[in-house]
Design goal:
This protein is an all-alpha fold and 301 residues long. Helices cover 71% and strands 0% of the residues.
């Protein structure tokens, strides 16, 4: 059963799915980088630095390759993209993690694809098939299994943490809004142009948020931290976002959102490789469920 009259028009190229997979692998790896840098750099300042680096790279790339400019009438959508996907997402995530429990934060953050599916259906009139709904449910369950390790005892029910949980929930909502605004622009402009504008505008919106964190000892930031900051700027904030934007020109918002469920599993695998944290049976089983659910949600017609 379809929840919308719109039908699929084209076969999605394999490279679009590969691009989404690479993007979420990069984003899954950032948990290690962010953890390292936050020991020396405040959260909002870190967000500003990484997207400032990404802005410089993207502007130079767009200029050297002659990418078109966005018309004035479409600038509000570019501003919405920057405000939601860069500014608010990073602000809500950084501030929410200060008080939200790690387990409940992971579960609540997994609501992002659900928000994406609902908004895509309501705003973009995208198809949602029964198989996609099934895939979303399976992937969501797998993501929760990875996050909870098979037990809900780690859930933080302290009322003092409710505000942090709300902020984490808002990251899912603003990420969904980001993807909807991207779709509005990607129909008319190349992905590189859309990403450049949203990144630059989002970085400008981040600027006021760093002032409460000043001054901090920037001269004491280690070389290794700067290496991680540039990794976050170049790969996580430029390359991964570009791969995601390009894929959205071919893939529905619902299908793309399902890939988000792979992040907890991929983060566990990366931790196993670099931190020698051996994945347990819940991570393995939850990862298999997330992979299966993502496959159903991204390939169902």
């Amino acid at each position: 059963m379809n929840l919308s009259p719109r039908t699929e028009k084209t076969v999605v190229p394999l490279r679009s799915h590969i691009g989404l997979l690479i993007a979420v692998i990069i984003w899954a790896s950032t948990f290690i980088n962010i953890k390292i840098v936050l020991l020396q750099v405040p959260p909002n300042t870190l967000a500003f630095l990484r997207f400032f680096i990404a802005s410089i790279v993207l502007v130079l790339y767009a200029w050297l390759t002659g990418k078109p400019l966005i018309a004035r009438k479409d600038l509000p959508w570019a501003a919405v993209s920057g405000l939601t996907g860069v500014t608010l997402y990073n602000f809500f995530q950084n501030q929410g993690l200060k008080s939200a429990g790690a387990v409940d934060a992971a579960i609540i953050a997994s609501m992002a694809p659900v928000f994406m599916a609902i908004l895509a259906w309501l705003v973009l009139k995208e198809n949602i098939t029964r198989k996609q709904i099934l895939g979303i449910i399976i992937a969501f369950a797998g993501s929760i299994l990875v996050a909870t390790k098979g037990s809900l005892s780690g859930l933080n029910l302290d009322s003092a943490k409710v505000w942090g949980d709300i902020l984490i929930l808002l990251t899912g909502l603003v990420w969904a809004c980001y993807n909807i605004s991207l779709k509005k622009l990607l129909d008319r402009y190349p992905p590189e142009t859309v990403l450049t504008y949203s990144t630059v505008l989002g970085t400008l919106f981040l600027l006021p948020l760093i002032f409460p964190e000043l001054p901090f000892a920037i001269g004491e930031v280690s070389l290794w931290s700067w290496v991680n900051i540039f990794y976050l700027g170049l790969l996580a904030s430029a390359v991964a976002y570009l791969l995601w934007n390009r894929a959205l020109t071919k893939v529905t918002t619902v299908a793309a959102g399902a890939y988000i469920y792979l992040i907890p599993f991929l983060a566990a695998l990366i931790a196993a490789v670099f931190l020698q944290e051996i994945p347990d049976i819940y991570t393995v089983c939850g990862g298999i469920m997330a992979l299966a659910g993502t496959y159903f949600a991204s390939t169902a017609k």
